[in-house]
Amino acid sequence: MKRSKKFSLLALLAAIMVFTAACGSGEPAKGEGKGGNEKAELEGSVVIDGSGTVYPFMAKMAENYMTNEQEGVSVEVSRAGTSAGFKKFLVKDGTDFNNASREIKDEEKTEAEKLGIEAHEMKVALDGLTFVVNKDNDWADDLTQQEIVDIFLAEKDKKKWSDVRSDFPDEPIKTYGPNENHGTYEFMFEKILEEKALPEKINLQQDYSTLVDLVSKDKNAIAFFGYGYYASNKDKVNAVNVDFGKGPVEPKVETIAEDGDYAPFTRPVFTYLNKGMAKEKPQVLDYAIYTMNNSQEVAKETGFAPLPDEDVKATVEALEGLK
């Protein structure tokens, strides 16, 4: 009798285990939506070019999407620069997205209209223009906003470090930055220097990696680019803290915000979606929505300040409306 009861109990436990497994844990498996709904498996390509500043963010996003979301989709991310990227975006059968560290210009909007391209703006994160110096530079830990402007314009005879402050070395300042293909150059020219032309002596480069290498080898160098790129090269260069009038502010995710202490040098960064491509290629729209839904997490991972929740929600709702 005892043996029979023991057998019945074991059978009951086995039945419960089978029922539980059949019901599942409540968590959707890969390829399923919330509530267990199967998500369509997509395939094809998504082609992205543009800003070198936005590149680390978008490259990480693409990696996550192909690994965790849609293994059958190939997301190709390049970094020609914002302006050069728009030239690839604003052509027949151009790129699906253009990353940009500035807003689209009026003349680019006009070109889009001529071609019948609807460029849908997606703000993805916030970035801080960061000024970096050589690791052996032990004097320019902080500079005022005006001193930075004077250095890059070589105004008021600010050609040597000692011209900036008398206790700085009597050595020539070497200035570096990204070239005209980049939205970062345009932000510096338009917003920081108030459209005053950079002198010919500044060394402008296409690749940010080249800028990092040049500064790391030149004790008297100073360069500018986005915070995200500095964050991934902290072992090679130092960031300058900037005094906007209330004491030096360190560029970091916590200060780079529209109302943060680093706000004068803060800017939004974008990607622009070709709405026509989104309608023709379901993977393109799916990637756009995935990007916004995961933008805050990836921003923090790649050296950007995340957008507020309400901004992300509004953009996702607009993209969902394209379905």
From TrEMBL:
<keyword id="KW-1003">Cell membrane</keyword>
<feature type="signal peptide">
    <location>
        <begin position="1"/>
        <end position="24"/>
    </location>
</feature>
<dbReference type="GO" id="GO:0042301">
    <property type="term" value="F:phosphate ion binding"/>
</dbReference>
<dbReference type="GO" id="GO:0005886">
    <property type="term" value="C:plasma membrane"/>
</dbReference>
<dbReference type="GO" id="GO:0006817">
    <property type="term" value="P:phosphate ion transport"/>
</dbReference>
<feature type="domain" description="PBP">
    <location>
        <begin position="40"/>
        <end position="292"/>
    </location>
</feature>
<comment type="function">
    <text>Involved in the system for phosphate transport across the cytoplasmic membrane.</text>
</comment>
<keyword id="KW-0732">Signal</keyword>
<dbReference type="InterPro" id="IPR050811">
    <property type="entry name" value="Phosphate_ABC_transporter"/>
</dbReference>
<keyword id="KW-0813">Transport</keyword>
<dbReference type="Pfam" id="PF12849">
    <property type="entry name" value="PBP_like_2"/>
</dbReference>
<comment type="function">
    <text>Part of the ABC transporter complex PstSACB involved in phosphate import.</text>
</comment>
<keyword id="KW-0564">Palmitate</keyword>
<dbReference type="InterPro" id="IPR024370">
    <property type="entry name" value="PBP_domain"/>
</dbReference>
<comment type="similarity">
    <text>Belongs to the PstS family.</text>
</comment>
<keyword id="KW-0472">Membrane</keyword>
<comment type="subunit">
    <text>The complex is composed of two ATP-binding proteins (PstB), two transmembrane proteins (PstC and PstA) and a solute-binding protein (PstS).</text>
</comment>
<keyword id="KW-0592">Phosphate transport</keyword>
<protein>
    <recommendedName>
        <fullName>Phosphate-binding protein</fullName>
    </recommendedName>
</protein>
<keyword id="KW-0449">Lipoprotein</keyword>
<dbReference type="InterPro" id="IPR011862">
    <property type="entry name" value="Phos-bd"/>
</dbReference>
